[in-house]
Amino acid sequence: MNQCVILVGGKGTRLGELTKNFPKPMIEVNGRPFILYILDYVVRFGFKEIILLASHGSEFLKDFFKDFSYKGCKIKIIIEDNPLGTGGAIINSYEFLDENFFCLNGDSIIEGNWLSILQNFDDNCDSVVALTKTIDPKRYGSVILENDIVKKFSEKNINASSKFINAGIYIFRRKIFKDYKKEFISLEKDILPILVNNKKIKGKHIHGYFIDIGTPESLKEGIDRNWNTERKAVIFDRDGTLNEDDGYTYKTSDLKWKKGAIELIKYCNDKNYYVFVATNQSGIAKDKFKESDMHNFHKEMQEQLKIAGAHIDKFYFSPYHLDAILPKFRKDSKNRKPKTGMLEQIQKEWNLLKKNMIMIGDRETDFQCAKNFQIKGFLYNGKDNLFDTFAEKIF
What we know:
Helix content is 26%, strand content 24%. The chain has 395 residues and is an alpha/beta fold.
């Protein structure tokens, strides 16, 4: 599932003059448009296409995203001639939708692993919604859940028994929207209740900070918040640690995960830790395989992880070796472990503190690399279940 649709057409009337002629998702929060916080997650989670469903203030979106891409992810903007509501906007974009797609509100975010709602998406449902918990559901309306099935989207009620609320992140099947006319339709009032009645929508609680900038109070919370809070990162070696190493492993057909590897990656995702891979790939230097083969291998890893609701934030690699056959890779690179070049890149690019970085690898060079960089390192024996061995040791 590679397509992410984002609803950015609301008028934001509760914010008054601030959004009178301006789209709410483009309001600056900590010096950058709020929507970029959302897009950073979309890119991290490996989506390849973003569709922005725009209406109010669409010229600002068109101007900002005039290159129609963000960090390598292509962007398509679909503009309604007249406001169609949240449901009507999706119906208006029907011909551009994939068979199954993610859909996000453009004015709210969960800082958590919302990709994991994929685990609940199966043949028994047509939609999954991400839920978050709040001590004050009366502003949003609560969600009643029973055995993962959404039983009811309740109206705003100060006495609501459920603390779950709709976080505005969904998976939808395209067919849901097939037979509607292009007119004003509310997703929340007109379409979701039908899915509930048919028992075709599931819900999953996602842990993490949630904010909806739709009111002056919540917008102020977002503006006052420190969005550069300290994040933790787990850095894995690849061959022999995450996957079986048969010697210069590069064919996608040879990808065999170590026991517990996917579970440990998802555990880190759910804890909202960054997950990186730092791998020596001297097979490129020795002409055993092409760099493109390695990238295809990493792509396959991501595709298999996504099915489990997990992801790796970025792969770092060193293709260099002193015994290289290919001259351009024949050097003593600072990026080749046990040297620390890759860890330096990770720290700089992701604004990390060393105390919040750990490394897990199966070779002494991995452990020594962590030691040289002065971060905590764990040596994996290559045999035991990775999750059972390290889950309780991580931070």
